Amino acid sequence: MLGASHWRTERSHVGELPDQVGRLLAGCGVAWEEVDAVAVSIGPGSFTGLRIAVAFAKGLGFAGGLELAAVSTLEALAWVAEAPPGARVCAALDARKQEVYAALFDVGPAGALRRATPDAVWGPAPLGAACGTATIVVGDAPDAYPDAFAGVPVRPFATHHPRGDVVARLGAARLATGVHVAVAALEPAYVRAPDAKLPANPLR
User: Fold this and answer.
1) C or N: which end of the chain has fewer Cβ atoms within 10 Å?
2) Does residue 126 have a cis bond before it (omega within 30 degrees)?
3) 137: left (phi over 0), alpha (psi -120 to 50) or beta
4) Tell me, what's the pLDDT at 14?
5) The pLDDT of residue 5
6) Quick one: CA torsion of 164, 70, 105, 165, rounded to 10 degrees?
7) How is the chain classified by DSSP, letter by letter?
8) How far, in Å, CA of 100 to CA of 124, rounded?
9) What is the pLDDT of residue 203?
10) Using CA atoms in the order 52, 105, 3, 94, what is the torsion angle rounded to 10 degrees?
11) Residue 176 burial (CB count, 10 A)
12) Quick one: pLDDT at residue 1?
């Protein structure tokens, strides 16, 4: 890995993301023209944040003819749990409205993750009960719903959060096996339907 950049902002990422990526490339001595592919976290997560990230990746892919790799946010999050072989990991993010985005993964002998469940929406209490004391939870869901995850092993979100370098590594692994997504086909994986919907017949 040549470099990584992490930042937090209270503003919209739409105005900062291109500059942040440009500065990272410049710091690594890489020109935009030298980029061959882009890996992007497609969700689940913030609807607005996902749209911004996916639109940016699609723009780069279209303008530069780059290959695109789509990575589940929950899968990338599960990798930062640094769980030992034989453990089960639950990647869980607060979905608001008393719901949690979550997926379960098993850690293999060599430390590789094997998905046990698809990305889905859970209630905090049922998810906490399903995890019990034998599953390591990583993500901000325990911070949002502490009662539901009482007694469950938790990796602090302050130190174990989704990272771009993990998304890049997982994306590179997909591309190495020939798995990529066409620019037109790349879409966010919301998991839960967005609240804003167009009327059935907007002309009425």
Assistant:
1) C
2) no
3) beta
4) 73
5) 86
6) -20
7) ---------SS-TTTTHHHHHHHHHHHTT--GGG--EEEEE--SS-HHHHHHHHHHHHHHHHHHT-EEEEE-HHHHHHHTT-PPTT-EEEEEEEEETTEEEEEEEEE-TTS-EEE-S-SEEE-HHHHHHHHTTTEEEESSHHHH-TTTTTTS-EE-TTTS---HHHHHHHHHHHHHTT--B-GGG-----SS--S----S-TT-
8) 6
9) 54
10) 40
11) 9
12) 80
Structural domains of the chain sorted by starting position, each given as residue range(s) with its CATH number in brackets: 17-73+162-185 (3.30.420.40), 81-155 (3.30.420.40)
What the block records as the tokens of 128 is 């906490």
Bridge partners for 113 per DSSP: 107
Query: Rounded to whole angstroms, how far apart are CA atoms 201 and 51?
Result: 25
Confidence at residue 199, expressed as pLDDT on a 0 to 100 scale: 59
Q: Compute mean pLDDT per 10 residues along the chain, 204 residues long, and list them.
A: 80 79 95 96 94 95 97 98 96 97 96 96 98 96 98 95 94 97 96 68 55
Cα separation, 69 vs 67, whole angstroms: 7
Residue type, 204: R
Which residue from 54, 50, 70, 52 is spatially nearest to 62, judged by alpha carbons? 54
Q: How far apart are CA 100 and CA 166, in angstroms?
A: 22
| C-beta neighbour count of 38 within 10 angstroms | 22
29 token code pair: 């001595």
